Prior knowledge:
- It is a single chain.
- This protein has one helix at residues 274-277; strands at 17-20, 27-30, 42-46, 51-57, 66-71, 76-82, 89-95, 105-108, 117-120, 123-126, 137-139, 149-154, 163-167, 172-181, 187-199, 204-207, 217-221, 238-245, 250-258, 290-292, 301-306, 309-313.
- It is mainly beta and 319 residues long.
- A hairpin with a 2-residue loop joins strand 21 (301-306) and strand 22.
Amino acid sequence: xxxxxxxxxxxxxxxxxxxxxxxxxxxxxxxxxxxxxxxxxxxxxxxxxxxxxxxxxxxxxxxxxxxxxxxxxxxxxxxxxxxxxxxxxxxxxxxxxxxxxxxxxxxxxxxxxxxxxxxxxxxxxxxxxxxxxxxxxxxxxxxxxxxxxxxxxxxxxxxxxxxxxxxxxxxxxxxxxxxxxxxxxxxxxxxxxxxxxxxxxxxxxxxxxxxxxxxxxxxxxxxxxxxxxxxxxxxxxxxxxxxxxxxxxxxxxxxxxxxxxxxxxxxxxxxxxxxxxxxxxxxxxxxxxxxxxxxxxxxxxxxxxxxxxxxxxxxxxxx
Length: 319
């Protein structure tokens, strides 16, 4: 991924790419050689552990997205820090240790102080006034299990308190934790179901799909064969968006794609294949998904990569 606005690591005027690896357990960047056909040299920054994906998220509050990977053995993020000479940037590591580590990570303002906190399946780190230099307070206030990326924070029901939204990465379920206040003013979290029929939710985003200028639509779907053997592994793939009806107090589901279940899937996981076991054209959301106006017609389309292929869903609007 390339952090928007800061995709020139070397300061030479050419676009480079920051990347994380699962099997390589690495965080690094690939240098643009500036010549067609020339190799792109890889520069390793760190080896934090297996990362399925990463997000570009402004954790410092300086307007520039930083790098938030999900190495499941530890919690770490990498500040996109401008070099002293003003040419390019460094990736400065912030290590939060192993206590909060788990499958999934995210960011968002939990306590309403207009700072972007760091969210894990086991709780959240509170962003201080100076996120680059001061200690982040740890709040072990929930246990979500194995989630996807990202865990999101937003005031879902309009009560002035920001809630947490997440999916089960290797089981059934899309959920939100409603935030309320206890008798002593402490935060209280209540788990509520958005959709218990969807499995293997690995990525979810907010996007303005209806063109009203507000990114209030929650978009997600099934990662086809996230693990070849797990609850819902052979279910038909779903891609959908959800909106919350505040008056009714419930989520509405809008299906974008509904696929068919895998037929005659081999018994052993090692013998299963997303390309062979599911019907042709089976789309999923994989590890990352992008909402972008691909055809330049003024609305957001969806780009969905995964084990079953790379798919584009064109937004045809409501007309």
